Amino acid sequence: MTDTVTESLAAPLADPDSFVDGPPWDLFRELRDREPVAWTPEAGPSSGFWSVTRHADIVAVSRNWQAFTSSRGVSLEELEDDQLEHRTSLIDTDPPDHGKLRKIVSTQFLPRVINGYESFLRGIVATTLDNALPLGSFDFVEKVSSEIPVRVLARMLSVPDTDHARLTGWGDRLVGGTDPEFAEIAPGTPEYEELRLVPFRSPAALEVFEYGKALQGERRARPTGDLISALVEARIDDEPLSQQDLDNYFLLLALAGQETTRQALTLAMETLVENPEVLARLQAEPGLLSGPALDELLRWGAPVYHMRRTATQDAMIGERAVRAGDKIAIWFPSGNRDERAFDGADVLDLDRPSVDLLTFGKGGPHHCMGAFLAKMEYRVTLEELVARVDTVSYDGPVERLRSNFVNGVKRMPVRVTTR
To answer: Which pLDDT score, from 0 to 100, does residue 6 have?
Structure first.
């Protein structure tokens, strides 16, 4: 931590209330200009963290896992050693352990495998839009963006399609711990302390564990070649995964396999509503979605606000010295709007020739393993959507998730007309 910075421009970034109206773009811009690595105080007992907001610095921290580790967790919660031991999953590890864990399922996310899902995916999208668009007015989150990625996830887990509602509900409860609508247990209560060894301190995690254990038992008896089969058949250094590792890995797949893509799709609709010229351009030139324009849209609407790293040694980030043990938050939406990395960064430009995208992470070992699948889901959904709709508009207030971790939307009432 620091003893030289007594006041911080970045202080609002520690408060989820600062994000209830969406990303604080003006604050991010001011930080990039004035204090690109800014001390961000937190309420006790947390110790505060450094906010990194420039593109180049975010990439540098991401790549240097030796100096900026993930092994103390990727959320801002400060975990004791026994909590880390119980909660650690793939994203909370560094090489070489990270590579060993990633290898277990990585072949199922290769482009040649994922490309085989496109026809199935297009069918899911078509059915979803066939059900939603004739309504004229509906909640886009409920009827569209919550439906598509979770049904793909159900396919990859070989679970009944009817389980999608449970998977979606668990996702809401796991990432919504700072939102009054989804928060189940108040900090400081006995129940909260009882869950200190459980990911997210959420009862939903325990429910996901039990669901996963039942599926694992089925796959041991009848392997199907799916993600769960890969987990139960895995060997690391000739040893099977422990039940704790199986629990945490399955929880990660069940959450990451739906939540970020759901939010990305919702933010894409937000972009189309608020930028009708973009919708018109994509309607006229849908082929743009097969090029850099897709990354430009993902630059504009990144579903994850930050990831946390911890300094393993005294180090420099840009011109700022940080100390061993300091927490660091790398803010992806800010880096995606950095004027130093993008000409006209505050302009959504579908003709941008290339996009140095941070949305899926960049550099280092933690680039999103499911990025190719997520981009396919994003592309196919937008292709089918712009081919069918004529106009889109809001039909009520947008309700955002109270979170400084997930750029989430809980409800987005929209009105559409179709061609």
So the answer is: 43
pLDDT value of position 363: 82
**SS3 sequence, the chain?**
CCCCCCCCCCHHHHCHHHHCCCCCHHHHHHHHHHCCEEEECCCCCCCCEEEECCHHHHHHHHHCCCCEECCCCCCCCCCCHHHHHHHCCHHHCCCCHHHHHHHHHHHHHCHHHHHHHHHHHHHHHHHHHHHHHHHCEEEHHHHHHCCHHHHHHHHHHCCCHHHHHHHHHHHHHHHCCCCCCCCCCCCCCHHHHHCCCCHHHCHHHHHHHHHHHHHHHHHHHCCCCCHHHHHHHCEECCEECCHHHHHHHHHHHHHHCCHHHHHHHHHHHHHHHHCHHHHHHHHHCHHHHHCHHHHHHHHHCCCECEEEEEECCCEEECCEEECCCCEEEEEHHHHHCCCCCCCCCCCCCCCCCCCCCCCCCCCCCCCCCCHHHHHHHHHHHHHHHHHHEEEEEECCCCEECCCCCECCEEECEEEEEEC
**Domain residue spans of the chain:** 11-418
pTM of the model: 0.96
Asked if CATH classification 3.40.50.2300 holds for the domain at 11-418, the reply, yes or no, is no
Give yes or no for residue 5 having a pLDDT over 80: no
pLDDT confidence tier of residue 142, bands split at 50, 70 and 90:
very high
